[in-house]
Amino acid sequence: MDCLQADVTRCGGITGLLTASGFAAAHQLDLSAHCAPAISAHAFCAVRCLRHLEYFHDHVRVESLVFDGTLSPAGGALRPDRERPGLGLTVNWPDAEPYRVYSDGKAM
Predict the structure, then answer these.
(1) DSSP string covering 40-104, please?
(2) Single pTM value for the model
């Protein structure tokens, strides 16, 4: 094995990602960012052993359906917007409403 793959949305969030990064670094392995580029770009800035960030059109399309502030690649790279707080995303609530699931499991 020469590269681990971590998905910030499936490995326990940013804390889990940093744990995976520490494991990879301790074993002289690269770490690949799996999907969710709007979130991953920010979180993986803290990863020294980053090999690359996967950028799939379908994930980008889904992110841009409900978030404002998603990133567009420039020159083959994603660069977080330092002027926006946190992950740089804002939920677009009216656009997210059709996907809402209620506590009883039923949508309106």
Answers:
(1) HHHHGGG-TTEEEE---HHHHHHHHHHEES----BTTB----TTSSTTS-EE-HHHHGGG---TT
(2) 0.79
Q: From 40, 39, 38, 42, select the one nearest 5 (Cα to Cα).
A: 40
Instruction: List the one residue out of 19, 39, 42, 67 whose CA is nearest residue 31.
Output: 19
Which contiguous run of DSSP H or E holds residue 24?
Answer: helix 13-26
Q: pLDDT per residue over 65-91, tens digit each? A: 999 999 999 998 999 999 999 999 999
CATH superfamily for domain 3-99: Enolase-like C-terminal domain (3.20.20.120)
Whole-number Å distance between alpha carbons of 53 and 8: 11
